[in-house]
Design brief:
Length: about 450
């Protein structure tokens, strides 16, 4: 006779992604894999900061045997009045090792984000003194060893003991999330110096603060060149109208400045942090228009990611979100299909596309960009029609090569800007494919009202 106390009970289905023990839900990961993402940013943004430094995300407590990982409170537990969840904890069954595995499994570059010695500045804003920054910097160096080190190193040996003796080939490392002000740059300098001395092959991702076009953002832009920041993470949660109006945002960026990582963005149907935000077609259409500018400026905007990525229908804090799931089902939003169409039709070289000598950034309600895809030999054209009515659209291809007399056409559209996908109707707004004829190098088609259209034209 006696009493047995059980701790860390975690039940998993046998049908996990790639059959991994304690693995991820196959249906959710399949949606991610279908996007063919270039990278995976993890574990997120504000989650790395914590309301206090004691509650910050520490990657070392998320690896090793699952039952030994250190439980901490989730920083979103009391963040919003509409979702007060004081019992919301992180068990870290999903930790840094699993994030690295997920990146590898879906063919994406891992892009981990680490705490820079600052708690969330929207909360306590607690700072580690500069003379005590050493352990935080060491965490970054040890993470590189965990990801890339040989099995005879301390952290490389731990990776091997978890089942992955081969390195994860980490290339990117983010320092800080949305930190701002001189306090951030004072601490960032320690990370930059130590990482470049020991691992000059690592590309560091810095931050430009919580939002663009603010005094904090402009201050960061002044400071960043002093700290050799190669890639800078810019965030924007704005109205759909802002996204339509900023399709030309990066056209005038300094080509000798930093590389842009548009690390968090999503059109807000009501307002930032509002629980009534919806993943409706208006938000997705505005993002599609904005992304024409990201592609056109791919020389400086080299990474971009919608955020947040996942939301549990019964346990969310923030809206909108890219993919929704419950205990049994999952679906991609219209925003998901916009992201997927861009990712799976990205091409290898941006092409010039203009109307009267200027990029199409909203003239007559049209936004467009073009690329050439060397592996397939196809010209890929993306066109967004913001207008409610259909429009006739004609192009003349300036290619020196002939093109096929047919083209593949993919359309994402809805005549209802409030329309959404749901568990009951997961593909209410989803891509529809067809074929159109071309007239030599002249292409004419009808653009559906409120649509995103992709043309793939084979070059002979």
């Amino acid at each position: 006779e006696g009493i047995v106390e059980l701790d860390m009970i975690s039940l998993f289905p046998t049908d996990t992604w790639k059959g991994r023990e304690n693995g991820l839900r196959a249906d959710i990961v399949q949606l991610l894999a279908d996007m063919q993402p270039g990278f995976l940013r993890f574990p997120g943004g504000c989650i790395v900061e914590g309301r206090t430094l004691a509650q910050r995300y520490q990657w070392k407590t998320t690896v090793g045997p699952i039952e030994d990982r250190k439980l901490i409170i989730n920083r979103w537990n009391t963040e919003f009045a509409h979702k007060f969840t004081p019992d919301y904890f992180q068990s870290f069954g999903l930790g840094f090792y699993e994030y690295f595995l997920l990146s590898e499994d879906i063919g994406a570059e891992p892009l981990p984000i680490l705490n820079c010695g600052m708690a969330c500045q929207y909360n306590t804003g607690e700072l580690v003194p500069l003379e005590e920054i050493g352990p935080y910097v060491q965490d970054a160096l040890d993470l590189i060893e965990f990801a890339n080190g040989s099995t005879d190193t301390e952290w490389g040996a731990l990776r091997a003991s978890m089942g992955h003796p081969e390195p994860f080939n980490l290339k990117y490392l983010g320092i800080g999330n949305e930190q701002w002000g001189p306090q951030f740059f004072e601490r960032y300098a320690f990370f930059e110096k130590a990482i470049m001395e020991k691992h000059p092959e690592i590309i560091i991702v810095s931050t430009a603060g919580p939002s663009v076009d603010t005094d904090l953002f402009y201050y960061a832009q002044e400071q960043l060149p002093k700290y050799n920041a190669p890639i800078v993470d810019e965030h924007f949660y704005r109205s759909p109208e802002w996204f339509f109006e900023n399709a030309a945002r990066y056209d005038s960026y300094d080509r000798d400045g930093y590389i842009v990582f548009a690390g968090e963005y999503a059109a807000q149907s009501v307002g930032q942090g509002n629980p009534n935000n919806k993943n409706n077609w208006l938000t997705a259409l505005s993002e599609a228009a904005f992304m024409t500018g990201l592609e056109r400026n791919a020389d400086i905007v080299q990474l971009s990611s919608y955020a947040p990525m996942l939301a549990n229908a019964d346990a969310w804090q923030w809206t909108p979100d890219l993919i929704w799931f419950n205990n049994m089902e999952t679906y991609g939003t219209p925003n998901y299909y916009v992201q997927k169409l861009y990712a799976t039709n990205r091409g290898t070289e941006v092409l010039d596309m203009s109307l009267a000598g200027a990029p199409l950034t909203g003239q007559h309600g049209i936004f467009a960009t073009a690329a050439y895809d060397e592996p397939s030999g196809e010209i890929i054209i993306k066109i967004v029609n913001r207008n409610a009515e259909d429009m006739e659209f004609s192009m003349e291809l300036k290619s020196e090569h002939d093109v096929a007399d047919t083209a593949r056409k993919i359309v994402l559209a809805s005549d209802d800007l409030e329309a959404m996908n749901s568990f009951e109707n997961p593909t209410n707004i989803a891509p529809v494919e067809s074929e159109i004829n071309t007239d030599g190098k002249n292409v004419t088609l009808t653009l559906d009202g409120q649509s995103m259209t992709i043309l793939r034209i084979k070059r002979n």
